[in-house]
Predict the structure.
Amino acid sequence: MEEFLTPAFWLAVGQIIMIDILLGGDNAVVIALACRRLPAKQRTQGILWGTAGAIVLRIILIFFALTLLAIPFLKLVGALLLVWIGVKLLLPEHDEGHANIEGSDKLWGAVKTVIVADLVMSVDNVIAIAGAAESSGSDHGMALVIFGVLVSIPIIVWGSQMVIKLMDRFPVIITAGGMLLGWIAGTMAVGDPAVANPDHWQWVPKLPQTDTVKYGAGIAGALLVLVLGKWIAARQAKPAAVAAAGAAPAAPTGRMHRILLAVDGSEPSARAVQHVLAMRGEFRDPAAVEVHLLNVQYPVPGDVSSFVNKETLQDYHRERADEAMAGAREALRSAGLPFKDIQRVGSPGQTIAEVAQAEQCDLVVMGTRGQGMAGSALLGSVAQAALEHSTVPVLLVK
């Protein structure tokens, strides 16, 4: 019983909960979309039964993963997979490929979709949670797993929209999650029997099993994920930016009258809307001002799109975009300022720049939280990305 009251146990529980929330967001989207066509009375039942089946299935998979990690060299392989999972977490996601599996209007059809989707999509969760439980050094690995999963699954299912919005608005959560996976990978790798057991596998270099080595490996793994993730993301963004710049028509010269207003429903974007309204009065010909109101939704992960058809995903993105744009639309209408609605799905900063070029805008106006250049570079600020990719002026409103 004392084992369950130690700081190490609760630290591991916290890691498992964070991993499940970060890597389970796509599962939450599938659950929501699979059950959206059910009658209202059955929707909650579908979510509950589907989630229950997913929990049982995931715990079974993690039990086998924990057993396999006792085999020499498998921790090293698992550590490499965790590093890649962490790197993927930091990369922009692309909404590609849609299968023909749809949300069902029958209760058990929806439950089946949720369970099958969770089985296919839980590989990263299983590896990460097994690594966190194993590297904690506790003799109660399955207790850790069961407790962490039971706590985090309700958060994912019922708090999925809040979690997704928090991750959209505060990229530091995703960055910290990726680095956490790198930390777990490092600590798991040095504990592999092949490098920890001096009596076997003599040809493999051995590492002393001290806290210094374990924490050093964890820090190295976290930094490796951060550096690799940011480097790969930068390399992926450059060709797209160059292509967009080459294909887009040049912005018109002369008077500035065409404004791209990017909003996400946050307080900074609301201030950007008010700034545009204030700017309108300063123009020589206010009636000539054109506002292009833009919202960019992050794409769902590719494995989600394998279980939900294209039309359902489009409805999902449209609903979220309408919610984010509602305040800006009302403010512009109240001020009598005509505007053009634009909704896109993609990497926000880059998409804002591409739309500004395609619409031949003279200026981009958007809100910012003012986290500074260093923070923006580290955390992946949307404003920073828009500044990097845009070929027209960008006005950031704090």
In short: Residues 95-103, 240-254, 372-380 have pLDDT under 50 and may be disordered. The longest helix spans residues 211-247. The chain is about 65% helix and 5% strand.
